[in-house]
Amino acid sequence: MQAEQSTSGSIGDKSSVRRAFLRGVLVSSPFLLVIIPFAMLFGVLATEAGLDLLTVMAFTVAVFAGSSQLTALQLMQDNAPAAVILATSLAVNLRMSMYSAALTPWLGRLGLWSRAWVAFLLVDQSYAASVAEYERNPKLTGPERLAYFFGTVVLIAPFWYLATGAGAILGAQIPPELALDFAMPLSFIALTAPMLRTIPHLVAAFTSVTLALTLTWLPWSSGILVAAITAMLAGAFTEMALEKRA
Known about the structure:
Elements: H1 2-28, H2 32-48, H3 53-63, H4 66-77, H5 82-92, H6 95-107, H7 112-121, H8 124-136, H9 142-153, H10 156-170, H11 183-192, H12 199-214, H13 222-245
């Protein structure tokens, strides 16, 4: 009898993990509408900058972060020093450290390799979809949370790589009327707008936008670096001030 219950429980666990994975796939599938043109845009721009197909694909597979890839590519075209390229790309991706901190309460007890894969596959879309699900269903088990996370990125990663390769191969054959560059701002607006729910979030967003636009005159797009760091500090200080007042 106990053996039957154990088998039934195991089947139930596998079924719930499978359902969590499929929910992640379903929720993340609309993101392909912006992921595909965004990746194709990077492939086109990278080949126009003189990178060969192998370098483009190695770049996108190793980094797997669209906004920082485009930033680094632009700085490379501007002949910026390597230190500036690395620092600015890091600043653009500093939000990933905040994403990681937000996911730690949900995924922090996983094994080392699971956490390593989560870190590598952590992008704006997988973060936004996963955190929303975890907050909505806090009773999910660790395997269910991990399965849901992988479900959110199982389509994004391969389509990102395939679309990057397609953009690199087709290059100038893609007509400018397609306006592939619409995907990047549209994607970030769709992801960040629903998350601006507190005063610190609004302060950080306003600070980053204002400084990024004001400091466009700085060389090598270093205004982005200044805007990112200042925005995080502004949001953190605002949160501490509100906590003290409370």
